[in-house]
Amino acid sequence: MSDLDRQIEQLKRCEPLKESEVKALCLKAIEILVEESNVQRVDAPVTVRYPDRITLIRGNHESRQITQVKDLKSKNIFDYLRCGNVAAILQLDEGLNKQFRVFEAAPHVCIENILFSSKIVAVLMLLTCIPMQEPRGIPSKKPPPDYFL
Amino acid sequence: MADSDPSAASPPVSSSSADDTSSPPMLCAACAGATASWSSPPLWSDSSPPPAYRPIRAPAINAPTATASIVLAPVPQPLPVPPAEPPYRFEIPSKRISSPDDIRHFHSSEAGRHFLGFVAALSRSVRGRKLSDPAPSPLPAPLSGLLSLLHTLARWIDEIPPLPHASRYGNPAYRSWHARLTDEGHGLVVALFPPVDELHPAADELLPYLLDSFGNAYRIDYGTGHETNFAAFLYCLARLGLIKEDDYPALVLRVFSTYLDLMRRLQITYSLEPAGSHGVWGLDDYHFLPFIFGSAQLIDHKYMKPKSIHNQDILDNFSNDFMYLACVAFVKKVKKGVFAEHSPMLDDISGVPNWSKVNSGMLKMYKAEVLEKVPIMQHFLFGSLIKWE
């Protein structure tokens, strides 16, 4: 648990985690989420009866704009987790008991605060707000205008 | 689907706040601002869709960000100009476009397709050619006539100096320059024709296109619509058989580049206002065609790539040969500040991998951003040579 405390403190200081740490957190989260009743494994090929009711979301990068602007190989945890309009938070208390909460879009949510609390591990799977300026130190390749693609 | 495990966590219908940890009101460690409220988040429901996200920055062009339709749009292709056949029925041209339906009508008509095809053909004709490449000597008559017409107009700038004027744009001396063009224009156009009686009335049809090629006298502005009128003027000359396909390279590299030099002098001397410019979200305040022709010039160049425009040495040394570089150099000279900030479109385009893609993109963009915009095309004139039908 001390590892998780340390990670929380680090994030509160707006310092990014190591890629391996984020990967481990994500794997743990997958372990937990896959047991949810509305998660279902589906193998290709998939036949879709009502295609306009389906939205395909590629992982955490829901919008083309985000995918374009963000460097997908970025090591900053914020980039892995920014997407969409819903925040879903898993809480694990010391007994590793799960609690699952869903929040609708909040205009400005500081990631550090969601991860606050020494007794809670919260892995943020989806975040709400999109930054209005480039995060420092992350090179992003500007795409050419659509006419030139 | 696995059965619901009652012991598993499930999304709460109504949430409880995180107050069971009884923590004091939290402040952001980074900005010390108040944090989002934890209590009673709104219920997620299908009838209340999530709010739209705000994009990182405004769209780079005033077009809907419907990218598929843009990416999949066909690249305008060169077309031969259909010759106008006698008996001629020249008329004073008039405006016809006032709605998007009219735009669609224009682009599906013969006139629309061939005009765009003419621009694409001009672009094709200067592939890999430098401005300093030798032109046929002597230049064919209509082309040399056009050059002397443009030189005459340039001489008038010296004879009509700018007046002392307080505001940023729009020196009123421009109106005198333009009035002179209106007075003497007819004679200048007639001088372009061979001495054939049948063609003489054509000057009445061509003159309005020429008069609209250098800006608006009342508003003292200039924009891509005026530039398009000059292209329409050249198109009419081509329809009359005075300009042939073999002449296209010289038409672009000599005549159009002289027109460009003239326009830059007018813009600077009389502080012409950019007409309908989209500011940082447009390609250029005044021009579009030199970017089409200029990118064609650089196709298959051995070492210059689109990103070469960031190299000041290249701009300094090769602007004389390549229109695109001259345009970028002009923008950098006239505008202050970081290039990426005052000209983000040109900056973004410098990331395109090769000039061929730049050129095809420019042609597509010209059709969509100039020829399909009502505020520009509402001034486009239709007569017997560019027919509205």
Description:
The complex is a heterodimer of chains A (149) and B (389). With 149 residues, chain A is α+β, with helices and mostly antiparallel strands. Chain A has 2 domains: 1-37, no CATH class; 53-63 and 72-129, no CATH class. In chain A, 28% of the residues lie in helices and 12% in strands. Chain A has helices spanning 2-12, 19-33, 64-69, 77-81, 111-114, and strands at 87-92, 98-103, 121-126. A 3-stranded antiparallel β-sheet of chain A has the order 2-1-3. Residues 56-90 and 102-139 of chain A have low confidence and may be disordered. Chain B is mainly alpha-helical. Chain B has helices at residues 67-71, 100-108, 110-125, 141-159, 173-190, 202-211, 224-239, 248-269, 289-297, 312-318, 323-334, 339-342, 344-349, 355-371, 374-377, and strands spanning 94-95, 221-222, 273-274, 381-382. In chain B, strands 1-4 form a two-stranded antiparallel ribbon. Chain B is globular, with a radius of gyration of 27 Å. Chain B starts with 66 loop residues before the first helix and ends in a 7-residue tail after the last strand. At the A-B interface, α3 and β2 of A face α1, α13 and α14 of B. Chain A: This is Serine/threonine specific protein phosphatases domain-containing protein. Chain A: One of its GO terms (molecular function) is protein serine/threonine phosphatase activity. Chain A: Keywords: Hydrolase, Manganese, Metal-binding.
Number of strands of chain A: 3
Portion in strands of chain A = 5-15%
Strand content of chain B: under 5%
Q: What is the H/E order of chain B? A: HEHHHHHEHHEHHHHHHHE
Keywords:
heterodimer, A: 149 residues, alpha+beta, three-stranded antiparallel sheet, 5 helices, 28% helix, 12% strand, flat, B: 389 residues, mainly alpha, two-stranded antiparallel ribbon, two-stranded parallel ribbon, 15 helices, 4 strands, 2% strand, disordered N terminus, Serine/threonine-protein phosphatase 2A activator (chain B)
